[in-house]
Amino acid sequence: MAATVQLAYAPGAMAADPVKIGLALPLSGAAATYGQELQRGAEYAADLVNQRGGILGGRKIELVFEDEKGTPQGGVAAVQKLMSVGRVKAITGGTNSSVVLAESSVTKKRILQVNAGAQADAITDQGSPWLFQINNTVSLNSESFNAYIVKTLKPKTVAYMGENSEFNKTVLEKLKASLQSAGIELVSISTYDAETNDFTSILTKIKASNPDMIYVADAYPARAAQLWKQVRQLGGFKIEVMSPGVVTPGMIKPSEGAMNGVITGEIFMASDPGAEGKEFVENYQKKFNSSPGKGELVIFEAVNLIAAAMDKAGTDSDYDKISKVIRENAWPSPRGLLKFDEKGRARAPYFYIQRVENGAVVQVERVSSN
């Protein structure tokens, strides 16, 4: 049975040498809004760890940031620099699955990596013993979201469109299975490459099939905002849904109202954080004068997990020992206790069905994920 672990902060003066944690984030490019959210959440977590005395006998946590630019090539360059120049003891960050998959080819068997936000199952299907995942996988999110589609929305026909990526490959696979089991027809499948910004021809083709519902899967905020604007220009659809785990204020705001009515899902909502998350939300709101989203939450949990696991293991570089400690314990977080399975995956205790209204997501219902 997993033991519950609290951060063990030693009293006394801070040691001179900090423990460096590297963060590869999209600080520029189409996913930059995700990077900004994660940077803020990571700095908040590190500040709290340091205020409470640091780890490993009083050593401070020092965050080292590199811009992975939202591309696989950028991700590889970022983690290589963090390891060779930054001399970091662990890697975290992660918002887009293709980027984290590329990074993991560099970090495997070399350094502890805690993927905070990317969802693709393939990331942790690799079986790397030093690689962990905080956010739900695509499969876990699809399990809850697709159940809502087939049992509550009950469309007779569905059209799908999304980027041709590892993330969306699994989204489509799970959607197909759910619709087939419910006897719902998937009338159209359209994919596009990362450089696409004009979706008119795809949407016109989908319109011709007259589906009850359109399912859009796109994890890049700027591009998705443009896509939904073009949906509105063509008159929209009866039911509109967006793949879960990707809709943030940084996607909704630039859509300029085009996403109103879109249904999506997420593992966290600041308006309904649960007993364990109330203090996190309130303190975050006081500090930043805004509410935290899923991005701020998962990176907050990732930085705290790395710090607490190193502290309990008594080392910042024996990754076999640190990873064993992570798997064998339960870790306090704003969502309750996080436990990691044999593949290094955590599972959110709740899943929230959401709808975009007046430029913000509102809760439709909360379902248990266990």
Automatic annotation (TrEMBL):
* Organism domain of life: Bacteria
Q: Which Pfam family is one of this chain's hits? A: Peripla_BP_6
Q: Where is the Leucine-binding protein domain?
A: 18-359
**Keywords of the record:** Amino-acid transport, Signal, Transport
Entry's PANTHER family? Answer: LEUCINE-SPECIFIC-BINDING PROTEIN, PERIPLASMIC BINDING PROTEIN OF ABC TRANSPORTER FOR NATURAL AMINO ACIDS
Q: Which family does it belong to?
A: Belongs to the leucine-binding protein family.
Name of the protein this chain belongs to: ABC transporter substrate-binding protein
